[in-house]
Amino acid sequence: EVKPEEEIKEVEKLEDTKIGTINQEGIKDEGIVAPPVEVKGTGVVEAPKQEEDYDKVFTVVQIPAEFPGGLPAWTKYLERNLNRDLPVENGAPPGKYTVIVSFIVDKTGGISEVKAENDPGYGTKDEAVRVIKRGPNWKPAVQNGRNVIYRHKQSITFMVSEE
Questions:
Q1: Which of 36, 51, 74 minimizes the C-alpha distance to 155?
Q2: Which of 1, 65, 74, 144 is the most exposed place for a label (fewest CB within 10 A)?
Q3: What CATH code is carried by the domain that includes residue 93?
Q4: pLDDT band at 21 (very low <50, low <70, confident <90, very high)
Q5: Which domain holds residue 104?
Q6: Is 124 within the bounds of a domain?
Q7: Neighbours of 90 (CB within 10 A)
Q8: What is the pLDDT at residue 68?
Q9: In this structure, is residue 38 part of a structural domain?
């Protein structure tokens, strides 16, 4: 017995059909292609703008704070102002004594909250803090084109050589 869905179609009825693995009813294909969809914009998706709090203290920024004149000027400043003989005067054995000094550089370059994060001894901590406090204003850090408050860490190393 032949079921109605298995009924063999006449050739004239098959002229406008598409061949496939399943049988289904559809609409007659008029051969019309849909118009192209108009794309507006550049195709680049921009992240949503987040209003950043520029009054907080930053620890990571696009352009960090720096000593005016850069590294050469910083080195020159230390050579002229740091008491490099202090560890020797306080009886330090030969070696390296590095102090990491943390401080805030505000939006105008002013220095505040100067403190040593470690103390290798022999007066090095106090001398490193003193030389930072006594120094000039720094170039402020920049985030998104704005000057921001920045916590900077600067290491200062005292070398004691054998005599």
A1: 74
A2: 1
A3: 3.30.1150
A4: confident
A5: 57-160
A6: yes
A7: 13
A8: 94
A9: no
